Automatic annotation (TrEMBL):
Protein name: Sialidase-1
GO molecular function: exo-alpha-sialidase activity
Residue stretches making up the Sialidase domain: 127-416
Protein's UniProt keywords contain Cell inner membrane: no
Function of the molecule: Catalyzes the removal of sialic acid (N-acetylneuraminic acid) moieties from glycoproteins and glycolipids. To be active, it is strictly dependent on its presence in the multienzyme complex. Appears to have a preference for alpha 2-3 and alpha 2-6 sialyl linkage.
EC top class named in words: hydrolase
Keywords: Carbohydrate metabolism, Cell membrane, Cytoplasmic vesicle, Glycoprotein, Glycosidase, Hydrolase, Lipid degradation, Lipid metabolism, Lysosome, Membrane, Phosphoprotein, Repeat, Signal, Transmembrane, Transmembrane helix
GO process annotations (BP): ganglioside catabolic process; oligosaccharide catabolic process
Length: 451
């Protein structure tokens, strides 16, 4: 009996020893890992900080000024002189005046769907408006089972159809749920698409694509395109708009920007050259480090919103999730080859666009680039539209849309109406997700007044 007791005590002590050793090994491994990390981060410097004094950012802008540029820019093609000459014709003096404000969804915080979040918004092939938002069951948490609801307006935002469910996770368990998602239009085939991810936190995510060929009235069954792009690139299509290239290179191509992968962070462009039938991966920018824990200050490009510029290049504003180098501002990326690559030397931090780590709206129209987001470095409030007449080099003008809590936003214009800009966004008095509202703004420019 006593012997048995002794052995038990011994076994206990032995186990303790093993546990202690294991513990020390883990600590050591983490320490070594962290050392390697820091070294790695120091070697790799993916982003320059844009300041006026920084010569590399100046040369960057001399390059991008070229509106008549060739397909892939590999060296400066426009001198600063040419740039100045061009700037004479630039428009200016655009102002925005609110003409309408309507709430499309309210988070009533009880019942079947207590919370509405993450709106996306597009024009339709027939010149109407379609808005889609997530209804979240149980609570406001991202991973809850959801519904997607569509609302349409055929009178430029005056009146809206009754919400219609197009996706419903039902009572599916937490985390096996759907997440919005990028909306985009193929103008050639008059088709509206919504790409979204199902089961974001599962080892195999499902990348889903659904469409409407009747201007957003009815939506077909979602198609699973995970195997087309490859499991490892099944990203979260970022909330906002995809684009269809209207200029060369790759005219007609559909481009969707996504962020994050199972077990990894970063940004990927998904491309389709056959009007949405097949998809493949284009540019892929990994976080630094990749597939490891990211600390504050790491390079972690997150939710992204692309626009096409007149030279056929793609300009992308990117959420800077880990405040790279401790800068609370957006990252900017560019592609000159239709989304195949996002060259590292055209990636920079734009200190003018401060952000509290959030998705933003971006719309390019007639030499004016509009941007929307909270003008605050840590809090989701104080939502502004800001605009640039020089392709994002300087942000000269701004209009405050909502001073109180406000969160995700998306910008849009109707192709036939060059006089109005729409912003659909989350806002509230108590919290930033009390409601999803649409504000319509009249665009007037000095040129109009001179006419
Ligand atoms: C960017 O890098 C490419 C090659 O990696 C080079 O050809 C090009 O000149 C660089 N551009 C600038 C503005 O540094
Ligand atoms: C827009 O609003 C500004 C001030 O908010 C005002 O000065 C301007 O006249 C307005 N423009 C139009 C076209 O209504
Ligand atoms: C989508 O396809 C992937 C890969 O074939 C598969 O693992 C996943 O279960 C599919 N998802 C759905 C919702 O059918
Ligand atoms: C559009 O949706 C329908 C119905 O699900 C599907 O049959 C068709 O393949 C889809 N088209 C594209 C281009 O995804």
């Amino acid at each position: 009996m006593a012997d048995l007791f002794k052995t038990r005590v011994m076994a206990g002590k032995f186990r303790l020893l093993i546990l202690l050793t294991l513990f020390i090994i883990v600590i050591l491994a983490r320490w070594i890992g962290n050392k390697a990390f820091t070294k790695h981060e120091m070697r790799y410097d993916p982003v320059t900080v844009m300041t006026n004094e920084n010569p590399s950012s100046r040369s960057f802008f001399e390059n991008v000024k070229s509106v008549v540029s060739p397909v892939v820019q590999t060296r400066p093609v426009v001198s600063s002189l040419a740039w100045q000459a061009m700037s004479v014709d630039r428009p200016g003096g655009v102002s925005l005046n609110q003409t309408q404000d309507v709430v499309l969804w309210r988070s009533i915080r009880k019942g079947e769907i207590p919370i509405y979040r993450v709106p996306v918004f597009t024009y339709t092939p027939k010149g109407n408006l379609v808005a889609i938002a997530e209804g979240r069951r149980i609570s406001s948490k991202d991973f809850n089972p959801k519904i997607f609801e569509v609302r349409r307006s055929t009178d430029e935002g005056e009146t809206w159809s009754y919400p219609q469910r197009i996706v419903d996770d039902g009572k599916s368990p937490i985390k096996r749920s759907s997440y919005i998602g990028t909306i985009f239009v193929d103008d050639t085939t008059a088709t509206i698409f919504l790409m979204y991810v199902f089961c974001e936190f599962c080892p195999t995510r499902s990348l889903m694509l659904m469409n409407s060929t009747d201007d957003g009235i009815t939506w077909g069954r979602p198609r699973n395109i995970t195997d087309q792009v490859g499991k490892e690139y099944a990203t979260h299509p970022s909330p906002g708009n995809g684009i269809q290239k209207k200029q060369e290179p790759a005219k007609g191509r559909l481009v969707v920007c996504g962020h994050g992968f199972y077990n990894g962070k970063g940004l990927v462009l998904l491309l389709s050259d056959d009007h949405g039938v097949t998809w493949r991966r284009g540019a892929f920018v990994r976080s630094q480090p990749f597939k490891m824990r990211l600390k504050k200050g790491a390079f972690d490009p997150d939710e992204c919103q692309p626009v096409e510029l007149p030279d056929g290049s793609i300009y992308i504003v990117v959420r800077n999730e880990k405040t790279y180098k401790k800068y609370h501002c957006k990252m900017i990326m560019r592609s000159f080859d239709g989304g195949e690559t996002l060259p590292q030397n055209y990636t920079y931090l734009d200190q003018a666009l401060i952000e509290p780590r959030i998705t933003s709206g971006l719309w390019y129209h007639d030499e004016t680039m509009f941007y929307s987001g909270p003008k605050h470095d840590t809090n989701r409030r104080n939502l502004y539209i800001r605009w640039s007449y020089d392709h994002g080099k300087t942000w000269t003008s701004e209009k405050r849309i909502w001073e109180e809590p406000a969160s995700y936003s998306t910008l849009m214009m109707l192709p036939h109406d060059k006089r109005h800009l729409y912003i659909l966004y989350e806002r509230g008095h108590k919290t930033e997700i009390d409601e999803i509202a649409l504000t319509k703004l009249k665009i007037s420019s000095e040129n109009d007044r001179n006419e």
